Each structure stands twice: as C-alpha cells, then as structure tokens.
C-alpha cells in the first residue's frame, strides 16, 4: 500500500478534493488520486503536470505543498502546512518515479516486462524523423536464440520494408542492427559479439544516432559504430518492442538526444529530452504507461507477464544491481550558501 494516500486522506479530502467537493477539478480520494495526479496536465498552470514522475520541481503538487507563491495558495488551503516529513515523503515519491505503491524505500512496485510467453508492445516511435536520438533498455535473455526473428526493437512499414531491426543473429553469432534512414538511401548494418549476455541476468543495451554515426553500447562498452547521417526512420506503422523475444526488459528509454550517459545504477527520471520511459510499475494487462510525461503509452499485444525489475533482481555484466559503494553522509551545522557542493 502507498504511504502517500494517507497524507491526502488526513489533510486534503475532509473539506475539499473529495467526490462532493472537487476543488480545482482534483479528487484526492483513495480510489481516484493516482489517476488524477500522475502524468496529468495541470488545469491552472500551462506547461506543468500535476505530478511529473521523476521531476518534483515541475510538479504542481510539490510546488503547492512547499508554498511556492507562483503556484497560488499553499496546500492544504486554509489549513496548516504539511509536516516537513510529509513534504519530503511526497517529494521523494515524485523523485523516484511516482509509483502507485510506495513505502518510502524506492520503487517497490516496479517490475520488468517478460516477453518470453509471446506478448510484445506496440508504440508509435516518438523519435521518428530525428537526427539526434537514443534508445536503451535493460534486457535479460532467458536463453540464447537459436533462430532469427527474435527482435529487441522492430520497425517496418506497410510496404514491408524493415526500417529498424535490432536482434541476435544465430548465423553470425552476433547482435545485429539494420537501420534504413529517412529519406531512404540504403540500409546501414552494425554487428557485434556479446555472448556474455546469455547468463539469464540483466544487461544494458544502448543504441544511438548522433547525426554522423550510429553506435551500439552493451554494458557500457562501445561495441560497434558506423557512419550514418540520416534521420531515424519514419513509418506508417507502430514500432514493436520485444517482438518474438524470449527475454525480459526494463527501463526502456527513448531520448531526442545522444551521448552515452554512463551505465545506469538506479531508475531513470523523466529528464529533459526523454520522450518515452517504460518502467512497468502497474502490471497492466493492456497498456504500458509512459513515465516520461509525453504520453507515449504502449499497447500490449498478447498476454502480459511480469518479473522483478532490474534493480530488484540484479544485473549481470552491467552491474545494474547494487554497486559496491561507500555511502558518506555529511551533516553541516551552518549555511553553505547557494554554491555547488563537490
């Protein structure tokens, strides 16, 4: 159960924000609060969302509970400010992806999507026509493919032209990317060996186009690149994610930017440039919610199946599980001003 709803119930729904008094068009009752807050555009503040997962500063809820006067009256309106601990709890909830069930320790309801039983995800690729782009995901193969046609990402068109195919080729014993640009000028191929990923653990796959080249990174290593000046292909069909793939995937992210940001060690936030972010929080049987805030939700074809997320189950060579780190906590008893801390 979520630790966030009791804050709303105890402070916001008695006199307003309930089914009989929907102040500001917002009902914070337990049955409706999540669907009316998360990834929902604000009615009063253009360009902002009520709750933008991963981004408290651009979430109206956070700004109102901390008393930012640019966002009108502080919440709860006409009452005492929330306890500092509750304000921090809401901020942390948003910062960690605004998942539906939250116990303060992280994304406790996050899962990975298991494509092994045969389902796949259809979505209109939000990076079509872009020259600068990147696609990435954590992938856990259940077994090494013995035939072709097991696609991590697959995009073709109604003329049956393959525009993007990213798959493992048993014939060459390599991962292969085939990319046909828009406008079409032949297909660019990339190949790389990576047999270490078939250990039934999560590994990180990253593909980008930077305007002059395309490149594959696996577990943080640049495995292959080729000259490529075309844009990401445009199609009259949806992209298929995990098409015939016997694997689980998590943290699927599309960006309108390139430059490998380093191997991730925690859930992504909806940072600038992110146009699709699938984190599989709600175990839906019909739709995959896009946590980027851009509403590029995916449609599930087949029977949905889920497993533990990458950070719960641990990663392989990518190190997506808990890293070997030393946590240093610094407490200061004086104001350090507005400068950066390094």
UniProtKB/TrEMBL annotation:
Pfam families: Laminin_G_3
Name of protein: Cytochrome c domain-containing protein
């Amino acid at each position: 159960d979520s630790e966030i709803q009791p804050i709303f119930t105890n402070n916001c729904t008695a006199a307003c924000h309930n089914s009989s008094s929907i102040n500001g068009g917002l009902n914070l009752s337990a049955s409706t609060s999540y669907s009316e807050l998360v990834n929902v555009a604000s009615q009063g503040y253009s360009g902002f969302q009520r709750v933008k997962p991963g981004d408290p500063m651009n979430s109206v809820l956070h700004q109102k509970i901390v008393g930012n006067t640019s966002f009108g009256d502080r919440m709860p309106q006409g009452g005492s400010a929330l306890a500092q601990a509750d304000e921090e709890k809401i901020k942390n909830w948003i910062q960690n992806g605004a998942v539906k069930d939250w116990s303060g320790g992280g994304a406790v309801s996050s899962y990975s999507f298991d494509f092994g039983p045969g389902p796949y995800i259809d979505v209109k690729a939000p990076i079509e026509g872009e020259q600068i782009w990147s696609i990435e995901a954590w992938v856990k193969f259940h077994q090494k493919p013995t035939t072709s046609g097991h696609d991590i990402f697959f995009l073709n068109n109604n003329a049956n032209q393959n525009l993007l195919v990213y798959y493992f080729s048993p014939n060459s014993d390599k991962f292969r990317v085939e990319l046909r640009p828009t406008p079409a000028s032949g297909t660019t191929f990339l190949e790389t060996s990576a047999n270490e990923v078939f250990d039934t653990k999560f590994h990180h796959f990253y593909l980008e186009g930077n305007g002059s080249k395309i490149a594959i990174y696996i577990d943080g290593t640049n495995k292959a690149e080729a000259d490529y000046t075309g844009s990401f292909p445009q199609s009259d069909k949806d992209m298929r994610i995990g098409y015939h793939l016997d694997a689980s995937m998590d943290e699927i992210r599309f960006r309108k930017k390139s430059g490998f940001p380093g191997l991730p060690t925690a859930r992504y936030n909806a940072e600038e440039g992110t146009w699709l972010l699938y984190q599989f929080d709600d175990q839906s049987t019909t739709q995959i919610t896009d946590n980027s805030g851009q509403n590029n939700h995916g449609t599930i074809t087949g029977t949905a199946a889920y497993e533990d997320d990458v950070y719960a189950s641990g990663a392989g060579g990518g190190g997506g599980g808990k890293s070997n780190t030393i946590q240093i906590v610094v407490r200061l008893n004086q104001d350090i001003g507005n400068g950066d801390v390094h």
